[in-house]
Amino acid sequence: MATGMDANPQECPCIHCLQGKLKRTPHRSSNTRGAHKLEFLHVDIQGPFDVGNDVSRYSVGIVDDFSQRGWAVPIRTRDALSPLLISFLEQHQRPELRCRRIRLDRGGENMG
After folding, report:
1. Going residue by residue through the chain (112 aa), what tens digit of pLDDT does each one get?
2. What is the 8-class DSSP label of residue 36?
3. Are the C-beta atoms of residues 47 and 61 closer than 8 Å to each other?
4. Distance (Å, rounded) from C-alpha 62 to C-alpha 44?
């Protein structure tokens, strides 16, 4: 303790002491699971690989968060991701059970 100061622990701390002990509120967790099939999809591109029989060099992995079912779809270029996702959703989702969230990695192919 410092000399010349009286320590009285029963007094209420000052506003500056309280503000110094404040912590940030935690971020809201975005890890809530999907409530039905195809509500929440995880999508990632792998590659480039050696050219396949269908001239594809990349593979897109799609995993449904609710059912944990996965799909692997070959594509020729990284730019083909957006049209692939649109056609995938048109084929698989129903009007009453629609895809609400898609989680992508931070690769450059999904920007813009």
Report:
1. 567 766 666 666 777 777 777 776 666 666 678 888 889 999 999 989 898 788 899 999 999 999 999 999 999 998 899 999 999 999 988 888 888 888 987 666 555 5
2. S
3. no
4. 7
Amino acid at 23: K
Closest alpha carbon to 86 in 97, 99, 96? 99
Contact 61, 43 (CB under 8 A): yes
The tokens 């969230």 sit on which residue? 101
Q: How far is CA 101 from CA 38, 89, 90, in A?
A: 9, 12, 15
Whether the upstream peptide bond of residue 48 has omega within 30° of 0, thus cis, is yes
- The answer to whether 70 and 51 have CB atoms below 8 angstroms apart is no
Q: Answer yes or no: pTM beyond 0.70.
A: no
